[in-house]
Amino acid sequence: MNAAFELFVDSFWDILLPGLLVTIPLTAISFTFALIIAVVVALIQFAGVPVLSQIARFYIWIIRGTPLLVQLFIVFYGLPHVGILIDPFVAAVVVFSINEGAYCSETMRAALESVPKGQLEAGLCAGMSWSQTIRRIVLPQAFRTAFPTLGNSLISMVKDTSLAANITVTEMFMTTQRIVARTYEPLLLYVEVGLIYLIFCTVLTKLQTSGEKRLQRYGKR
C-alpha cells in the first residue's frame, strides 16, 4: 500500500508536467485554429456562396464521417509516403484543428442563422457593408449563442488530445504509458491520468460557467 501511494505521488508530477507543457498548449493552439476555420466555413454557408458552400459541406461531411484517429494516421503516417514529413506536434495541431473546425462550423452556422435577419438588414440600411454588419452586429450575437456549445467542444478536445500519443506526441497519456511499461501498475497509473484529465476539464467547466453568466448579464444590458 505504501509503495503504491509513493508511486502515485512520484508519478503525479511526471504526468502533470507534460499535461501543462504539451496537452494544454496542444489544445489551446488547435482550438484557436479550429475556431478560425469554423467561422470562415460557417460564414461561407451563411452567405450562400454557391461553389464555396458545396466545398464547405463536402469538408464537413468528410471530417465528421471519418474517425479522428484515422485522420491522425493519414497525416502523420500516410503523408510521408508522398514526401510530406510533418513533426508529430504540428501534425496533431493540424488534424485537431481541421477536425474540430468541422464540428464547430456547424455550431457557428446554427448560431449565425439564429440571429434575426432584421439585424443584418438594419446594419445594411445604416450604411454599413455586409462584412462590417457581420463583424460588428451578427458575429458578436452568434458567438454569445454558440458559447456554451463551443465550451463543451473545448473540454472534449482536452480529452481527445490523448489520441496524439498514437503519433508519438509526448503528452500526458504517452507519458503514463511509459511509466506503466516501467512499473507494471496499469490500474493505478491510468486512474491517475484520468484524474488529471478530470482536473483540467473541471477547471474549464468552471470557466465556461463563469463565461456564460457574464454573457447573460451582458445580454440583459
TrEMBL record:
Q: How does it sit in the membrane?
A: Multi-pass membrane protein
Q: Does the keyword Magnesium apply?
A: no
Q: Which SUPFAM superfamilies match?
A: MetI-like
Recorded GO molecular functions are: transmembrane transporter activity
Q: So where does this one cross the membrane?
A: 20-46, 187-207
Q: Where in the cell is it found?
A: Cell inner membrane; Cell membrane
Name the CDD domains on file: TM_PBP2
> Which family does this protein fall into?
Belongs to the binding-protein-dependent transport system permease family. HisMQ subfamily.
Q: What is this protein called?
A: Amino acid ABC transporter permease
Q: What is the lineage of its organism?
A: Bacteria, Pseudomonadati, Pseudomonadota, Betaproteobacteria, Burkholderiales
